[in-house]
Design brief:
Helix content: 25-40%
Oligomer: single chain
Structural class: alpha/beta
Number of strands: 21
CATH architecture of the largest domain: Alpha-Beta Horseshoe
Shape: globular
Strand order of the largest sheet: 3-2-4-5-6-7
Strand content: 15-25%
CATH superfamily of the largest domain: tm_1862 like domain
Number of helices: 14
Bound molecules: 5'-deoxyadenosine, iron/sulfur cluster
């Protein structure tokens, strides 16, 4: 497929649908502005998608509420990565059923990764027939059109099954923060890790053109954003399929050359595609945070092979050593899956050894969750939940010690942090280091939204205390 076929501008028709909806709701609600409740499950890609849904809802004339009881429209942006994420969304849908009894006009939308699975669609149709609109991850750029058709009951209920692997551009965005923002650089995933549902629900990898990314990034810097995260399921394979020959390090170089006072972050990086060039760019850059989230998943080569991760621990460690030699103050974080089918306790212990060696500042840890349709779901899994829970607790305990030690080593150091917000209670300002570690400093309201130099005076388990220099 050529790039022209997959690039999809937010076309004028969608704006026309938004205007039509605005007229309809004006007629229906009069002076009252109807409210939408948007609930996001899962990863930062979903948070970013929800900001686009909110942008479009705002264009249609809706305001927003934090209470689903108050809402005229409820949108659940769902996640399919683990069973518990799905159960949470389905559980909440059960609640909506009650609200809808007393408020039959309530308009309910389900979107996101869950809706790309046939079994879930069947379940929604059978158990939650009050849902008004189901919209897949591939169709967000046509949200106003589908909303209009469902709202007007042109179709009693719509499911949009088209699987066009588009690269949506120019969608309206209502960002949650004035300081931190996400910029998608690519969509989808081609890696097919054996446990993971993402390639099935988000489609093949496709990258945005660099000029569109840079334009969006410049706009954010000019509007005062200070902490901007480039998003993709595997940002390191950015550029595949584009007419222009460009890789992720080169994209970073171009973004880094934009003048301004800001930090660049990116996630997620697949270790197999994290090259020396990537670490060189970070070390030479002016704006890239000295932090890399590099999910290793586990510390045992047999399990890594079964996971289809395409690297071994030796290679992973070589990359980390190179990165640390280039960027001595680098902070590392990772994702770990505990209890992959067939993982023995001895193999799990390799993960403990690995995390002690690398010294990640923090970990996202998960118990393996079988996902129907993935190869791993077919592997016999003799280890029960209690044993897996025991392992994850052991992992967390080991990591707690590592994080605590890393934080205590930072005491006495000077750091540049972003002053993010005033703590609700204690009169402290919450700041964040390059490595995403929080630092509490005494209240100086005027610094919120700025980078400031602080001296670290004390440490807690996974956070720091400091004072303004
Ligand atoms: N079970 C548990 N964790 C999973 N992840 C992805 N799929 C599964 C699964 N089936 C984790 C991986 C990934 C993170 C986003 O979610 O660690 O890096
Ligand atoms: Fe899932 Fe692997 Fe793709 Fe990450 S790289 S989204 S874990 S398939």
């Amino acid at each position: 497929m050529s790039l022209n076929e997959i690039i999809c501008k937010y076309d004028i028709n969608q704006t026309k649908y938004s205007i039509k909806i605005k007229e309809i709701i004006k007629h229906k609600f009069g002076e009252k502005i109807p409210k939408a409740f948007v609930k996001t499950y899962g990863c930062q890609q979903n948070v970013s998608d929800s900001e686009k849904y909110k942008g479009m809802l705002s264009q249609m004339g809706f305001s927003f509420t934090d209470s689903q009881n108050d809402a005229d429209v409820i949108l659940f942006n769902t996640c399919a990565i683990r069973e518990n994420a799905e159960n949470k969304a389905l559980g909440n849908l059960g609640w909506i059923k009650n609200i809808k009894k007393s408020k039959p006009d309530l308009f309910v939308i389900i979107c996101g990764c869950m809706t790309e699975q046939e079994n879930i669609l069947e379940k929604i149709k059978a158990v939650y027939p009050f849902v008004n609109l189901v919209i897949g991850t591939h169709s967000a750029h046509k949200f106003p059109e589908f909303f209009y058709k469902a709202y007007q009951k042109i179709h009693k209920k719509i499911y949009i099954s088209e699987k066009a692997d588009v690269v949506p551009e120019e969608l309206p965005i209502k960002r949650d923060s004035k300081l931190k923002a996400f910029v998608s650089v690519m969509y989808g995933c081609d890696n097919f890790c054996s446990y993971c549902i993402v390639p099935y629900v988000r489609g093949r990898e496709r990258s945005r053109k660099p000029e569109n990314i840079i334009e969006e990034f410049k706009c954010l810097v000019n509007s005062g954003y200070k902490d901007i995260t480039l998003l993709g399921q595997n940002v390191n394979s950015y550029g595949k399929g584009l007419e222009e020959k460009i890789n992720f390090p080169e994209l970073l170089r171009r973004i880094d050359s934009i003048d301004g006072d800001y930090k660049i972050r990116f996630m997620t990086s697949h270790p197999k595609d994290a090259t020396h060039e990537l670490f060189d760019v970070i070390s030479e850059s002016r704006h890239i945070a000295h932090h890399i989230h590099l999910p290793v998943q586990c510390g045992n080569d047999r399990i890594l092979k079964l996971m289809n991760r395409k690297y071994d621990i030796k290679t992973y460690l070589e990359k980390i050593n190179y990165a640390k030699s280039k960027i001595p103050d680098l902070t590392l974080t990772s994702d770990i899956i505990v209890g992959f089918p067939g993982e023995t306790y001895e193999e799990f212990k390799d993960t403990l050894e690995l995390i002690k060696k690398v010294k990640f500042s923090s970990l996202f840890t998960f118990i393996y969750s079988p996902r129907s349709g993935t190869p791993a779901a077919k592997i016999p899994d003799p280890t029960g939940k209690p044993e897996k829970t025991k392992r994850i607790l052991e992992l967390l305990k080991t990591q707690e010690e590592i994080s605590k030690n890393l934080c205590s080593e930072m005491v006495g150091k000077k750091m540049r942090v972003l002053a993010e917000s005033l703590e609700p209670k204690g009169g402290y300002i919450m700041c964040r280091t390059d490595g995403n570690i929080t630092v509490q400093i005494p209240n100086h309201k005027e610094i919120i939204g700025n980078f400031v130099d602080v001296m670290i005076t004390d440490s807690r388990n996974e956070s720091l205390i400091g004072k303004l220099i």
